[in-house]
Description:
The chain has 244 residues and is α/β, with parallel strands linked by helices. It has helices at residues 58-61, 68-72, 85-95, 160-163, 180-186, 191-201, 223-229, and strands at residues 2-7, 21-24, 29-31, 48-52, 78-83, 107-111, 116-118, 122-129, 135-141, 146-150, 168-172, 205-209, 233-235, 240-243. The chain has a seven-stranded mixed β-sheet. Strands 7-8-9-10-11-12-13 form a seven-stranded mixed β-sheet, with helices on one face. Helix 6 (191-201) runs parallel beside helix 7. The chain is globular, with a radius of gyration of 17 Å. The model has no long low-confidence stretch (mean pLDDT 97).
Amino acid sequence: MRVEFLGTGGYYPNERRHTTCVMLPELGIVFDAGTAFFRVLSRIETPEIHIFLTHAHLDHIAGLTYILPSLAAGKPQRAHIHGTEAALSAVSKHLFAEPIFPIMPAYEWHCLTPRVDVPGGGTLTHISLTHPGGTTGFRIDWPDRSLAFITDTTVDGTYTEFIRGVSLLIHECYFPDSLADWATKTGHSNTTPVAELAREAGVGQLALMHIDPRRSDADPIGLAQARAIFPQTELAEDLMVIDF
């Protein structure tokens, strides 16, 4: 099964990274719809897509407006948005307010339930995470593998058991350790706690994303430092593919 990292940045896009969007094209599953969501439209392999929103901050939802022509043309035939009641309400009332975007795409809206059946015979569960305005972490378990998607939160030990043993952990790492104080202030994460979390939770692989767009250097978060703690760590880049 492959995961395509279509957008790996946070806050705003830059020349290197669009904002958060991760896709499992074989299953039609998408996590968040940041500015990279335009890349989803050429990668659709299924008649339906399911978009799971962590929260309604603009860098995670802006791309929801991009799908209108594709839906009208029947590719995909149906598009589902899954999220908390608060997130769905914010998107429908504000992003699709008539003065901002006057035509509502034919989305089907689904408020998250404790367990959601997903394509491929998987089951999705979710957990509330700490972040200004709130956010949601996701986990999908299939018979032979598992994945967790955690973004816009500070590592605090409250979700270690939720991600325990997943094959692939996708986790935000907005700041390097030198800016750890800003991670705490803004509700984001820095390198060492994320790597320690992956080690403690016994995950198979760790992919770091949601990177600070102000960082233009080749190694914005200290990858060697993360690998010293958890060797199976990758720094996700736009258009990277991981098979798990």
